[in-house]
Amino acid sequence: RVMAHAVVEWTSNLEGEADIHGLLELIAAAMRNSGGVFPWGGIRVRAIRLDDYVIADGKADDAFVNVTVKMGAGRSAEFKQTFFTDLFEQIKAHFAELYARRYLALSLYVEEADEADSFKHNNIHKRFKKD
Length: 131
What we know:
The chain has a four-stranded mixed β-sheet with strand order 2-1-3-4, covered by helices on one side. The protein contains three helices and four strands. The protein is an alpha/beta fold. 28% of the residues lie in helices and 27% in strands.
């Protein structure tokens, strides 16, 4: 049960309006506060600004923020349902003011990585090991 990576994709028309770094902090804090389900040394949260995109009919100033979480297998279905439902509620609250005043699509996808197809070399975990 290692790795928890979140990639936030966001449309460039949100520049100056959306607190993307605040969103990254929110996601990382949720993972750190998972009761050890997500080991701290395996948490990676990053954002990718999208300059090229088409949304719906391409005519309005529509925007989107998509969060994809990749994690190793092994978390229970109950944990995933509870954790990610809560996380998505936090994401919606984070964007509530912006959502109320402009067209905005929010989404969260969760993917489990097959450890056999995953290659990692990470010494960050050592910082969090208890002696």
